[in-house]
């Protein structure tokens, strides 16, 4: 799968014991990765039962991690290949496709091809998540679905309407097309299944696989979420920042990012009408956005002749590439492709987020690249341009080992349908889209303003009373005053004192709305006659 | 004779003396002592100890003593125990001292007798008893003597009466004595060890036992007083607790292991009984009488055979007896007669003419019918159809709507004058009308439309004379609608071009004029009609108290002059029909809200605020008003204009109404929120064409528009700003950020003057704001500052991170730590690992998400059994079978292990106890 252009030389042979140790070390390292964080510190736990249970649990986790590490050893045999310079003076970006093609295997050679489709105008492309199928959408209404594995055109048809974007839904059975007026859903035979009239004049589409949500922006600067399993419109928000066709979803948390003309990048989720994060990325309209598969990096291109790579953990631009880019895409292995006019560049992280130019490619002059998309699980970059489509080889771009649980390029129809059912069962609700999905199931931090519930107050009160009861020390008093009844009374008093603040709190919660706010005269009203000042209203902002 | 009998008696008693002496103890009475004193010297061969024991005894009455036969004993004893004379003396000495001190009677005895104690050991007094007996009888008439005599006498009497020799009765007496003695035995409290030892003398272990007893006596032990009960219990509890703890701690290992085990398995192979119905049926055995009979019938060989061979033979078996036939006939006859009687009864009932009876009957029938309705959907449908018909009829005829002659007459006279019954009747009629008119179980629910309903309402309120009015109103409405539509129509395609638009507008205006003319005409005719209809209406209004009661529509207080009412009424009608003719005349400026208030049955007082509010409401409700409003204003200078501007990458068409005061619009262009068709069109054209072309096109159109003063170009500065929108992005972003900050952490309101006290005299202004207000404000400001600092985006200039709480996502998180956890770290650490199949290899998966308890359905969980567990055992083995601790017998190895464990481990608690 992954071709190794100039792979590392095999390491010098070591003594067997050393090798074994190395293997063990490797396993341990991998196991640590699968342990997902450090073991919890159980020393501070007082509850012995819980401690025992957690210890057992931790052991099970450890075993699972080890098994996973071992499985990785066997199930992920291939590594991605890369172009590596033989001497320090050699530059990988000087290597042309023409020099790569003779070196690679026949199967890979067949993956590099061009399709000339001059009539029906600039093409957008989209791959299915398992990399097997490709959609071609010509702006003037040409739609085609191609099995890129078998190089077989599955369906080709004309909608005779402007096509702005195409996207696969869930699998190759259905795909959505943003046409002139509405979004249409077709099946793989080209039959129109649905016309989604809710989102009129769509500009760009995006599909969230785990949530079954079709996201679209439209000409009215709206962001539209529609559940394709139920047909419900989950959300429809006005961005208030102008219509945009720059949209990308974060593969980690399914948050949708929009690039706007004001140089802003906004991030949205379906349950909030305001952007979660607004970033000022460029001093000019944003032309393209792409997310790194880890979800931590985002690349933006602006009209200010810059392409920036941002780290979303720090909200900092970690790298800035000069030049325009009409389109951007990150590959599964983190290569960044950007295209401007007829030139395509691929940048690669050389380690420590140090991006360097990795490959370049240029299609014939005058062709305008509209979309670049890496093909998943293959070292192929697809270019949709004004004269059709071409695909080039970019070594080291695709994930060499596919996980059939996630995506299987060779899946049978039975597997596909099974997977579909499973996906439906595992469908996530739109609320689960959030900036940090890891926080699901964790303890929610209490908001500042949130009031304690009655029950919680009661619980606190009981705790306080218990503490007082156990700690209260009643002094011995003189003869007449030390009767048991009096002592009991004193004790009771103490308990009541401890209860008092909580009781007051409870009363407050019972009272409901606080006292009416005192109406305060406004300065605006001052120019009115005194008698009328009280009628002055505060204008809603 | 007396002597002989006495002797006899003594002889008989002698045999018993020993026992008497040993058992009958010290607490003898004075009488006894007296007797003893008499017998002194004659008692011998007694142990010292024994004698000492014979201290004082209870003072018994004579009769009792007689019964006890003490005297006889004494005598016999003196006779028998002649050997130990010396010892006896000692005893008597002691006894006598006491006796002498206590009673003066003893003094009567001469001292010589006292000396008899000092008789030598070997003194023989074998002959004495007889003498003494004589002595006794001779010397004194002591009680003893008397007793004896009594006994004698009694015996003699018995002898005389029965004729049986004396001996027989003597024996009886003896027996009685024995019984009494044994009773005394029980009563006596102190039994010494010696008493118990005495009978053992001569037995094999006697000497050693005696030695031990003596030893013990030499060094007397003082027994401590027993502890109080509570203490004793405490000690006992302590001990038992120790044992119990030992027992329980033994279980600790097992319990701990079970508690900490991630999964408990209860899945031993067990026979769970029948699995199928067939299996259950096969095991059936008839038990009750009925079951047995049935079984017998089923298995009757004759029947079975008949069934097997041929159905015909069954007929033969199916014989009917004569008796059965007769029975059947009788039964049928009975039924027939019953039927006949029922018929007769029905006939009679049919003839009944009593109203109450039928009323009751009807009610019953209705009840039954309603019950059936609920059950039967078909009947319900029929009923619904019927209801619908009735409703239609009612709506047509208005039979119950006070339209009858009777009702009219009564209403004319006035309801207040009527008696209660009439009023009730009218109310009932109205109610019936309502009932009939109401839509119930309608066949087609969707047929109703607001139009119809409104017309219905009108029907209620107005007479037929007003139908014409309505028709006019409808016409008016339609024209208004047409006007409205005309406003929107030409916004597509070619017509979108500005000059075309202008032309269209002109034409529209003409059309409007025409339409308005028509409307005016309508109104005029309407007014006329209303004037005519007013009189009749007034009448109804006067009598409309009934209507009032129903809360339909009130026309203000009755005191108000008719003229005013008329005015309002008119307006109201106009208002209801969305007419606008009044507005032109300037009448429709103020009273509108007032009327609405009336309509809404509110208070009559007009308040400015509410009026304003109402006006707003009205405006909102009747959008048509506004449209017409605009239209009117359009007569003057043109106020709406459209500008197309190139901004960023799209055209924006802007329409602003200068006529609207609340929309404070400046010459600058506002971004409309509602995208019109036009924008879309232009947008598309832009996409297909190149940028420059578009700009040119735009400019040319503007050149044309320049001729008109309504359209104005955006200023050059504006254009530049739009073209170079990106230049000022940072500032814009800053502004945005400030806005969001203000929204999420709003700035506290500036303290302002308090309404109320001192306001009129400027006191507040002079003194300034009160301290507390200023302080509050400061505090709020400070808090806001803190909140702003705490924000996640506080450090970044180029980032806004929204901090609004997402209510919907809250349900996906825990509000508090789940039960067993006490620390957040532990909980989250436990949660960090994904346990789904997507993240784990299949071999590790089952261990990760195995349930806590695995149990076969139907399996009975046995109580836990004891098992020795190593406390430091690790939980490596994932599978642990709890049930019975018996492994499956499938493999030999396992069974061996099981046996071993069985041997090693004591199975039950009882066994363990036994072994210890």
UniProtKB/TrEMBL annotation, chain A:
Residues 9-20 have a biased composition (Polar residues). Pfam families: BING4CT, WD40. One of its GO terms (biological process) is maturation of SSU-rRNA from tricistronic rRNA transcript (SSU-rRNA, 5.8S rRNA, LSU-rRNA). Residues 491-514 have a biased composition (Basic and acidic residues). The keyword Aminoacyl-tRNA synthetase does not apply. WD repeats lie at residues 279-320. Residues 1-23, 475-520 are annotated as: Disordered. Residues 357-437 form the BING4 C-terminal domain. Keywords: Nucleus, Repeat, rRNA processing, WD repeat. GO terms for cellular component: 90S preribosome; small-subunit processome. This is WD repeat-containing protein 46. It comes from Rhynchospora pubera. The lineage of its organism: Eukaryota, Viridiplantae, Streptophyta, Embryophyta, Tracheophyta.
UniProtKB/TrEMBL annotation, chain B:
Residues 121-138, 449-463, 531-540, 580-590 have a biased composition (Acidic residues). The keyword Phosphoprotein applies. One of its GO terms (biological process) is rRNA processing. Residues 102-111, 139-157, 387-397, 474-491, 502-519, 566-579 have a biased composition (Basic and acidic residues). It is found in: Nucleus, Nucleolus. GO terms for cellular component: small-subunit processome. Residues 661-673 have a biased composition (Polar residues). Keywords: Nucleus, Phosphoprotein. Residues 8-17, 35-56 have a biased composition (Basic residues). This is U3 small nucleolar RNA-associated protein 14. It comes from Rhynchospora pubera.
């Amino acid at each position: 799968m992954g071709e190794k252009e100039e792979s590392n030389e095999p390491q010098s042979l070591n003594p067997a014991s050393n090798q074994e140790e190395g293997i063990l070390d490797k396993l341990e390292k991998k196991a640590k990765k699968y342990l997902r964080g450090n073991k919890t510190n159980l020393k501070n736990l007082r509850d012995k039962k819980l401690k025992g249970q957690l210890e057992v649990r931790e052991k099970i986790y450890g075993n699972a991690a080890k098994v996973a590490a071992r499985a990785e050893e066997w199930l992920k045999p291939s590594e991605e290949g890369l172009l590596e310079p033989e001497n320090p003076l050699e530059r990988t970006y000087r290597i042309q496709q023409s020099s790569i093609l003779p070196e690679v295997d026949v199967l890979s050679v067949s993956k590099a091809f061009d399709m000339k489709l001059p009539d029906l105008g600039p093409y957008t492309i989209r791959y299915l998540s398992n990399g097997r199928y490709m959609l071609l959408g010509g702006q003037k209404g040409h739609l085609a679905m191609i099995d890129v594995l078998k190089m077989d055109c599955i369906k080709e048809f004309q909608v005779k309407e402007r096509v702005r974007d195409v996207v696969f839904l869930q699998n190759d059975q259905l795909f959505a097309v943003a046409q002139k007026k509405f979004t249409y859903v077709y099946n793989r035979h080209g039959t129109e299944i649905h016309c989604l009239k809710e989102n009129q004049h769509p500009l760009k589409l995006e599909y969230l696989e785990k949530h079954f949500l079709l996201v679209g922006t439209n000409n009215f600067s709206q962001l539209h979420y529609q559940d394709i399993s139920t047909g419900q419109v989950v959300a429809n928000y006005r961005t208030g920042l102008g219509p945009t066709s720059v949209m990308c979803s974060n593969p980690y948390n399914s948050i949708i990012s929009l690039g706007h003309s004001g140089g802003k990048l906004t991030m949205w989720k379906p349950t909030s009408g305001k952007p979660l994060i607004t970033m000022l990325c460029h001093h000019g309209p944003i032309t393209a956005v792409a997310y790194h598969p880890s979800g931590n990096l985002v690349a933006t291109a602006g009209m200010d002749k810059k392409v920036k790579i941002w780290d979303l953990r720090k909200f900092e631009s970690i790298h800035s590439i000069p030049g325009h880019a009409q389109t951007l895409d990150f590959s599964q292995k983190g290569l960044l492709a950007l295209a401007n006019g007829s030139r395509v560049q691929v940048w690669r992280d050389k380690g420590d987020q140090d991006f360097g130019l990795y490959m370049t490619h240029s299609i014939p002059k005058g062709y305008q690249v509209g979309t670049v998309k890496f093909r998943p699980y293959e070292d192929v970059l697809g270019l949709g341009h004004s004269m059709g489509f071409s695909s080039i080889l970019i070594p080291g771009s695709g994930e060499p080992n596919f996980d059939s649980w996630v995506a299987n390029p060779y899946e049978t129809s039975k597997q596909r349908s099974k997977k579909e059912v499973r996906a439906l069962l595992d469908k996530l609700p739109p609320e689960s889209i959030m900036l940090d999905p890891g926080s699901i199931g964790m303890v929610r931090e209490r908001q500042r303003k949130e009031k304690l519930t009655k029950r919680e107050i009661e619980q606190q009160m009981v705790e306080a009373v218990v503490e007082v009861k156990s700690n209260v020390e009643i002094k011995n008093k003189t003869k007449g005053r030390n009767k048991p009844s009096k002592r009991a009374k004193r004790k009771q008093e103490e308990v009541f004192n401890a209860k008092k603040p909580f009781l007051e709190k409870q009363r407050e919660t019972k009272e409901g709305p606080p006292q009416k706010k005192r109406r305060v005269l406004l300065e605006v009203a001052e120019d009115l006659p005194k008698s009328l000042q009280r009628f002055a209203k505060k204008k809603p902002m | 004779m007396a002597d002989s009998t006495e002797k006899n008696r003594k002889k008989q008693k002698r045999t018993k003396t020993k026992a008497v002496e040993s058992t009958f103890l010290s607490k003898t009475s004075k009488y006894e002592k007296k007797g003893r004193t008499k017998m002194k010297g004659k008692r011998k061969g007694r142990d010292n100890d024994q004698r000492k024991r014979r201290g004082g005894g209870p003072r018994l009455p004579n009769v009792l003593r007689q019964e006890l036969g003490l005297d006889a004993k004494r005598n016999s004893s003196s006779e028998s125990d002649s050997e130990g004379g010396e010892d006896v003396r000692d005893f008597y000495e002691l006894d006598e001292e006491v006796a002498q001190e206590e009673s003066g009677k003893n003094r009567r005895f001469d001292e010589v007798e006292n000396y008899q104690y000092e008789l030598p050991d070997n003194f023989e007094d074998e002959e004495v008893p007889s003498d003494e007996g004589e002595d006794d009888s001779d010397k004194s008439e002591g009680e003893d003597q008397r007793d004896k005599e009594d006994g004698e006498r009694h015996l003699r009497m018995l002898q005389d009466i029965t004729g049986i020799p004396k001996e027989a009765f003597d024996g009886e007496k003896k027996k009685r004595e024995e019984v009494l003695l044994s009773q005394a035995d029980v009563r006596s409290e102190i039994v010494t060890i010696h008493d118990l030892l005495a009978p053992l003398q001569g037995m094999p272990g006697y000497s050693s036992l005696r030695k031990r007893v003596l030893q013990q006596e030499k060094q007397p032990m003082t027994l401590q007083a027993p502890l109080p009960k509570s203490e004793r219990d405490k000690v006992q509890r302590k001990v038992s607790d120790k044992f119990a703890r030992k027992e329980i701690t033994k279980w600790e290992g097992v319990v701990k292991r079970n508690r900490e085990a991630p999964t408990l398995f209860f899945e031993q192979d067990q026979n769970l009984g029948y699995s199928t119905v067939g299996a259950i049926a096969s095991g059936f055995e008839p038990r009750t009488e009925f079951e047995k009979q049935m079984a017998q019938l089923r298995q009757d060989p004759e029947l079975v055979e008949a069934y097997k061979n041929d159905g015909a033979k069954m007929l033969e078996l199916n014989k009917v007896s004569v008796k059965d036939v007769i029975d059947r006939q009788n039964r049928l006859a009975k039924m027939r007669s019953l039927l006949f009687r029922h018929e007769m009864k029905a006939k009679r009932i049919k003839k009944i003419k009593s109203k109450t009876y039928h009323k009751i009957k009807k009610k019953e029938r209705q009840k039954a019918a309603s019950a059936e309705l609920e059950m039967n959907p078909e009947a319900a449908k029929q009923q619904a159809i019927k209801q619908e018909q009735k409703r239609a009829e009612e709506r047509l005829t208005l039979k119950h709507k006070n339209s009858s002659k009777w009702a009219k007459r009564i209403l004319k006279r006035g309801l207040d004058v009527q008696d209660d019954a009439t009023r009730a009747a009218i109310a009932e009629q109205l109610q019936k009308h309502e009932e009939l008119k109401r839509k119930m179980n309608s066949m087609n629910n969707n047929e109703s439309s607001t139009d119809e309903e409104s017309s219905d309402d009108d029907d209620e309120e107005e007479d037929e004379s007003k139908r014409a009015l309505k028709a006019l109103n409808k016409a008016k409405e339609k024209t208004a609608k047409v006007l409205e539509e005309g406003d929107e129509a030409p916004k597509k395609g070619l017509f979108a071009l500005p000059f075309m638009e202008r032309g269209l507008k002109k034409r529209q205006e003409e059309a409007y004029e025409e339409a308005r003319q028509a409307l005016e005409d309508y109104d005029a005719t309407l007014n006329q009609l209303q004037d005519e209809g007013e009189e009749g209406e007034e009448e109804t209004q006067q009598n409309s108290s009934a209507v009032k009661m129903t809360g339909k529509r009130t026309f203000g207080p009755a005191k108000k002059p008719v003229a005013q009412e008329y005015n309002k009424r008119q307006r109201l009608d106009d208002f209801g029909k969305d007419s606008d003719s009044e507005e032109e005349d300037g009448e429709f400026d103020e009273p509108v809200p007032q009327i609405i208030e009336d309509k809404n049955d509110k208070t009559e007082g007009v308040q400015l605020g509410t009026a304003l509010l109402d006006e707003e409401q009205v405006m909102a409700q009747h959008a048509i008003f506004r449209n017409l409003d605009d239209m009117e204003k359009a007569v003057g200078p043109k106020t709406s204009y459209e500008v197309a501007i190139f901004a960023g990458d799209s055209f924006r068409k802007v329409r602003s109404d200068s006529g609207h005061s609340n929309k404070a619009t400046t010459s600058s262009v506002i971004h409309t929120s509602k995208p019109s068709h036009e924008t879309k069109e232009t947008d598309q054209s832009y996409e297909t064409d190149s940028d420059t072309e578009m700009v040119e096109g735009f400019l040319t159109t503007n050149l044309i528009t320049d001729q008109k003063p309504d359209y104005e170009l955006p200023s050059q500065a504006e254009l530049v700003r739009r073209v170079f929108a990106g230049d000022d992005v940072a500032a814009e972003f800053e502004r945005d950020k400030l806005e969001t900050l203000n929204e999420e952490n709003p700035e506290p309101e500036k303290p302002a003057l308090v309404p109320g006290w001192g306001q009129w005299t400027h006191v507040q202004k002079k003194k300034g704001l009160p301290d507390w207000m200023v302080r509050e404000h400061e505090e709020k400001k400070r808090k806001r500052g803190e909140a702003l600092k705490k924000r996640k985006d506080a450090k970044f200039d180029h980032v806004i991170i929204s901090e609004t709480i997402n209510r919907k996502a809250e349900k996906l998180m825990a509000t508090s730590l789940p039960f067993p956890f006490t620390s957040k770290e532990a909980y989250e650490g436990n949660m960090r690992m994904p346990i789904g199949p997507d993240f784990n290899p299949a071999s590790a998966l089952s261990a990760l998400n195995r349930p806590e308890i695995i149990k076969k359905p139907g399996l009975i969980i046995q109580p836990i059994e004891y098992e020795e567990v190593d406390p430091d055992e690790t939980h490596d083995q994932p599978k642990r079978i709890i049930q019975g601790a018996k492994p499956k017998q499938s493999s030999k190895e396992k069974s061996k292990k099981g046996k071993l464990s069985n041997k090693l481990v004591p199975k039950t608690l009882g066994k363990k106890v036994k072994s210890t």
